[in-house]
Amino acid sequence: MTERIAHHAPDAGPRSFAGQRWSLADIPWHAIRHDAVVESEAFFYLVASASLMESATDLYTENLIEFFAGDDEVTSWLEHYWLPEELQHGRALRRYVETAWPEFAWEPAFRRFVEEFRPFCDESLEARRSLEMASRCVVETATASYYTTLSRASPEPVLSFLARRIVEDEVRHYKHFYRFFRRYRDTESPSRAAVVPALWRRLRMSGGDDSFIVLKHVYGARYPGAPFDAEVYRDLRRECRDLVRDHFPHEMSVRMLLKPLALGPRTQRVVVPVAVAAARHLARKLT
Predict the structure, then answer these.
(1) CATH of the domain at 163
(2) Cα separation, 138 vs 198, whole angstroms
(3) Rounded CA Rg of the chain
(4) What is the domain extent for residue 197?
C-alpha cells in the first residue's frame, strides 16, 4: 500500500482526474485584494493552518484504504477521487497564502509540520466499517462547516470564492461517506447506541493535537524563535473564533451530524432546533 500512495510533494503541479469539478486555473488569483486580508492575523491563521492540514491528507489515507481493503468501490473512490480533491484544496490554499502573505515561508513550515504530525496519523479507526463511515461523516461535516464559515466571514472576494469551491467538494464527500455508511449499516446493523459514541469520539478529536500542532508551526514560521505554549494557542483560537463566530452554519452542521442517526421526521423537528440552540450557546460561551 505504501507504494500505491506515496507522499505527494506539496508544490507539485495540478493533476487531472476523472470528475474534477474545478482546478487552480479557475481561481482569479490576480484579483486578490491584499488590503482586505493582509492585516488580519486571524484570517492568516485560518487559511495557513488549513493549507498545511489539507496538504497532509495523504499521510493518513493509507490507513483508511487498508481498513476498507476488499471493497473496491470505496478504496477506488478514496484513492482516485477523495484524495486528489483534498490535495488540490491544499495546493489552492497554499497558493492563496503565498499570494496574500508572500513573506510567509510555507514550504519550511510544511516540512516541520509533517515531521511532527506524521506519528499522529496512525489514528485508531472504529472497530466496524459502518461506524468508521459514520465517523467520516463527522470529519466532512467539520470541514464543510469550516469552509462555509470562512467563505461567509472573509472580507476578500477571492478567498470567499475559493472557500465555496472547497465546500462543494466537502459536501459531496460527505454524501459519498454517508452512502457508504448506509450500505455497511444494511449488512452490519449497528444500533443507534453504537453510532452515537462513534460520532462523539470523532467530534472530541476536533481541535485536538492536530490543531495545536498545525498552529504551532504556522506561528513558528511567522514569528521565528517565539515561544508557543498553551496560552498562545488559546489566544490564537479565541481570536479566530471571535472573527468568525457569527458566520458558522449551525443548522447545516447539526443536520449533517445527526443524519447517520436516521431520526424520524417528528424526532428531527424536536431535536434539530434544540441542538442548534445548544450549539449557538456553546459557541457564545467559548468566545
Answers:
(1) 1.10.620
(2) 9
(3) 19
(4) 37-286
Task: Tell me how far apart the 2 most distant CA atoms of the chain are, in Å.
Answer: 56
Residues written for the chain: 287
Query: At 177, which amino acid appears?
Result: F
In whole angstroms, give the CA distance from residue 265 to residue 26: 40
List per-residue pLDDT tens for the chain, 287 residues long: 333 333 443 443 334 444 568 999 999 999 999 889 877 889 999 999 999 999 999 988 888 999 999 999 999 999 999 999 999 999 999 999 999 999 999 999 999 999 999 888 776 799 999 999 999 999 999 999 999 999 999 999 999 999 999 999 999 999 999 999 999 999 999 999 999 999 999 988 876 788 999 999 999 999 999 999 999 999 999 999 888 889 999 999 999 999 999 999 999 999 999 999 988 876 665 44
pTM score, two decimals?
A: 0.90
| Domain assignment of residue 82, yes or no | yes
Helix (H, G, I), strand (E, B) or coil at 33: coil
With DSSP H G I counted as helix, E B as strand and the rest as coil, what are the percentages for the chain, rounded to 5? 75, 0, 25
8 A C-beta contact, residue 88 and residue 14 = yes
Residue 71 inside a domain? The answer is: yes
